[in-house]
Structure formats: C-alpha cells, structure tokens
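Work Package 3 (structural annotation) set out to generate three-dimensional models for the target panel prioritized at the project kickoff. During this period the team completed the workflow that converts sequence records into discrete structure tokens, so that structures can be stored uniformly alongside our sequence database. As a representative example, we reproduce one entry of 374 residues exactly as it appears in the project archive.
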Amino acid sequence: MSYLRDGMWICDVDIESNSVVEYSYLLKNPDGTIVSEGLKKRFLPYFATNNGVVNDEFIYRDISTIFESKPFVNCLTKHVDYLPFPAINENDILLIVDAPLIEKNQGVAIVGEGDFLGNWQVDKKLIMYPSYNNLWWINLPYNHFLTHAEYKFVVYDKYSGEILKWEIGNNRRMPLIIPNAVYTKHINVDYNWHGSGVAIPVFSLRSSSDWGVGEFYDLIPFADWAKKNGHSLIQILPINDTTSTNTDLDSYPYKANSVYALHPMYLNIDAVGKLKNSAKYKEYINKAKKLNKLNSVDYSQVNKLKLSYLREYFDENYSLIISDTEFCDFIFNNNLWLKDYAVFSVLRNEFGTDDFTTWGQYALYNKSLVEEYY
C-alpha cells in the first residue's frame, strides 16, 4: 500500500466479479517485524457496480481480541438473526462496525448530529443489523449530506430500547461520503464481561443409562443445567484417546496419543445401535449395569466391554457401515490423520505396546506401508 496522508494508506486492487474475497492487514515495522490484526479475517462485500471504495481501520490487538474468539462469536454472544451484507450501489454507502461482546439481548446503533442521525436524541437512533463475526452494518443514503457529521456508536437493550453503553472518547466524524463505498470501523467501549463456569471431567458425568462412565451425550443435560444456573462456560479434562497398554495405566487423561482422535470410552452405545443378537445384547447391558453401580470408574473393564461391543456391532453391520455416506465422508474429511492413526492403533494392539521402536518393519513411518496395511 502507498502512504497518502494523516495515517492513511491506499491501494488499487482488481478482483473478479462475484468472487468472495477474504483479506486482512499487516503492519510492517522498520525492523522488519510484522504486526497482524485480531483473530478474524475480513470479507469484501459485493459491489453492484464495477468500481467501489473500501475504507477500513486497522484493528490492533487489545482486550477486545479475546471476544473475537470462537467461544464468544459462535456461542456466548452469537446473534441468530444476522443478515448478510447488502450489495453496495451508487445510491448508498455501507457502514460496518466491528463490535465484540454484544450480548444476545443487545444491539448496536448510531446516534449523531443532523436530522438523519437523530440530532443526538437516543429515541431516534439508527438501528444497525447483526451480521457474521461480530460485525454490524447499516446502509446510509449517499445524498443526505452526512459528510463530516459527528456521531457515536451505542449499545442498546433490544427490549427496552435503553442505551447501555456510549462509545468512549471523542465523537466520530463521518468521512467524505462517496457512492459505491464501504466504511469499516471498530467500536470503542469498555469491556467488562464477567462469566462463571464449571470445571468437570466427562467421565464423572455418569447417568443411570451409562456403561460405567460419563459419556459425550451426558454433556447435553449438564449444559442445560449450567445454563439454567447462569453459567457461561464448561471446562472439561482432555478427552483424547490415551490407549497405550489397554490397562488402568491408560486412564491418565493428559497422556494423549493424538490431538485428533477422541477416546472411544466416551461413546454412547445406545446412539451406536443395538446388536441383532438380542441375547448377546442383553448380556452386554447386564454387564454395563454392574459397572455403572460401582462407586468409581473401572477404567479397564469399561473399555474392554465397550470395545468388545463396538467390534461385534461393526462385524454385524460391516456392509452397511462401509457404504454409509456419512461414514465415507468422515474418512475423506479426516484423511490427514485417520488412516495413520488407525494403523497405529492396530499395530499397538498386535505388538502389545505403543513403543513403535519394537515394531520391526513398521518401526519407521512409511506412507506406502500404511496404505498397504490399511
């Protein structure tokens, strides 16, 4: 980019019509070090004409960057009524504000000078629309003499209309308003979010229908309980596969074999499906009930029982499983690690140890051997 004036940098970019453009800004210091923006990327709105102007602000990393992370954007402050950006045309400008930590019962608006901006009257505020990734937008008419008008972004209560927060600092001024333009800003407010949470291992969430250990499905009613009691977060212990010796020594949750593979112990057998052999199925259920009555988790016996069931179910339904679309998609989408880990698991069981240096010809990783073995 080329320096213009007053901290402004410009560049011209040619893009294909109707293409989706993702971009971000980098700041290069004199010593060569790079300063990047916050966590998320920017997306270029669609221009209805052949030419357009994008006026952005560089967003430095600060306390607000925390609230751009996925737990906040996709869960804690996600607005389900979001609207995509409209096409930009010669009659309007698109004003976008990056506003992290807007609660689900809150919205963003503009209050400013002049008739169109409400003459600083809060009951005449201009309501902005929520979009993806904490972005809020509004179309402003090109011909309403808004250039250099002073304004502020405000946070308001959606139900009462009350203004909850005003931007801190000096009033903003509208830039030179030109047609076919988009202006992106970053809201400047105090971030004083507080949230409570619960830390709990999944294996301790045992319910009456479990097989001696808490399971992934038990997180659903627990999350409902947490929400009912005003909690915002649930922290769990690691849930990745730790199988090394097929004994109680594998129960330590921080000794994971893979950052991808989850521990099969947490599978819900009811969700997997029933065995066709009803007598055999009943036998498994009776054993599971005994394990579920224990005061603590019998790690090795729980895993032995569940893995035995899963193998029998897989053998019974082999042809259906390998032709299932979702199953095939899962293998394809996780090809980066899944085949390698599957072969590792089989070799570990065959050799009775995860010490791969004792695996003979498989001691050193070889992609062709993995493909052949798989």
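The two ends are 51 Å apart (CA to CA).
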